[in-house]
Amino acid sequence: MLGKLDAPDDLVRLFGDQGITPLPFTERHAARVTKFEALSKHDPFDRILVAQAAAEGLEFMTSDRILLGLGYDWIVDARK
């Protein structure tokens, strides 16, 4: 399936083994969603992830051309 992650059943454990920890979605993240009006008709989950990355000052990797086209230097092409 295009755009869908085919993940193993123990993905959470595998992430933990690599030192990757979950980042809860907070009210502060939700407030940032409104800052990305250009994404108002885009995938809601993508909007949430972008808002979360912005609020936390994190780099966001994607191959989504619309997200890459926003022009933010912290949204980077995952294909490179």
TrEMBL record:
InterPro entries: PIN-like_dom_sf (IPR029060), PIN_dom (IPR002716). It comes from the Bacteria. The keyword Magnesium applies. It holds the Pfam family PIN. Residues 17-66 form the PIN domain. This is PIN domain nuclease of toxin-antitoxin system. Coiled coil: none annotated. The keyword Plastid does not apply. Keywords: Hydrolase, Magnesium, Metal-binding, Nuclease. Signal peptide: none annotated. The lineage of its organism: Bacteria, Bacillati, Actinomycetota, Actinomycetes, Propionibacteriales. GO terms for molecular function: hydrolase activity; metal ion binding; nuclease activity. SUPFAM superfamilies: PIN domain-like. It comes from Nocardioides albus.
